[in-house]
Every structure is written in C-alpha cells, then in structure tokens.
Design brief:
This protein has about 170 residues and is an alpha+beta fold. The chain has two helices and seven strands, in the order αβββββββα. The strands form two sheets. A four-stranded antiparallel β-sheet has the order 2-1-6-7, covered by helices on one side. Strands 3-4-5 form a three-stranded antiparallel β-sheet, covered by helices on one side.
Length: about 170
C-alpha cells in the first residue's frame, strides 16, 4: 500500500513554542528553554554551556527584546553582570518548561534533522574520567613502587594540617 502524497508543511516547533510560552506566562510561571548549544551557529555564553546544552530563562524580566519568529529566537540578557545578545536558530531549541511546576514540552529532533547536522570537529568526544575509590587509589607513580613489593596501602592517608589560629571576623564600617 503506498502512502498518500502529503503536502510539504512548515515545522510545528515555532508555533508550539510560542503557545506554550504564552500559557506559562499567563499562569504566572517562569518560562525556560533548553538549547542544544553544540553548534557554533548558536550564540550563547559558552562559559555556561554544560554537556552541550544550556537552559535559559526567557521571562519578561530576564529577556529583553524577546523575538520568537518561525526561524529563530533572539533576545538580550545579562550573564554575570554583562549584557549579551542571544541568537538561537529554531532547530536548537530542545524544550520549553515552567520552572515552578516543571511542566514541559519537548521537541522531537527529527523535525529539523537536516539543520542539526553538526560537523565531526564540533561533536564533543567523551573524555575518560578517573574516580578515586577509598583505599584503592593508585596513581601512575605508585605503579612502579608496587612492583618492588612495597605496599603502602595499609597506612591511612595523611590528615590535613590543623589551623594554628582561630578564625576571626573584623567589622568594617
């Protein structure tokens, strides 16, 4: 059975974003958006990007000159006391939610699949991480010592030095 010839429609994301934003504001809550910030096309403060995404408060008090059209979301906001212009292509917005109730609307990535292609150089590669396990921490310098048969794991780790003076606060007028 063949599929019917469906008309080419515009993406739903900008319409749903505006509608959900209006519902959040009408109910006295604070709207936030989660943005995929892995692409250089997304203009956000990079120092606040965590794991390739950033959450932005887009309430009327936090975002100045907020514009949500069919292709982009733009506004000015302050980060660390500095005013910044934010530019988000519509495909980068992953979700909109109310901070107070966590009511959210997540957007499927398939709608903008061709726009979201991130070059391999921009895709962050996972870095190996090390975690210390109590009583079993071994550094690379300890490996050579353990080959000699000396095992210092029986000794507890040294305690931090104790302060010699009491901390004091000074009143400044």
């Amino acid at each position: 059975m063949s599929e019917p010839n469906l008309p080419n429609t515009t993406p739903k994301r900008p319409y749903l974003l505006r509608a959900f934003y209006e519902w959040i504001v009408d109910n006295g809550m604070t709207p936030h958006i989660m943005v995929d910030a892995r692409s250089e096309q997304v203009q956000v403060p990079r120092q606040f990007v965590k794991d390739g995404s950033i959450v932005l408060n887009i309430s009327m008090t936090a975002a100045n000159n907020l514009m949500m059209d069919n292709d982009q979301v733009t506004f000015n906001a302050r980060f660390g006391g500095r005013s910044m212009s934010i530019w988000l292509p519509m495909w980068s917005i992953m979700a909109v939610y109310a901070r107070e109730t966590q009511d959210a609307l997540q957007f499927p990535p398939e709608e903008y699949a061709e726009s979201m292609v991130i070059p391999a150089a921009e895709v962050p590669t996972p870095r190996p991480s090390l975690a210390t396990v109590a009583g079993a921490a071994v550094s690379s310098s300890d490996n050579s010592a353990s080959d000699d048969g000396d095992n210092d794991q029986d000794e507890p780790p040294p305690s931090p030095p104790k302060p010699t003076k009491r901390p004091a606060l000074r009143v400044v007028k």
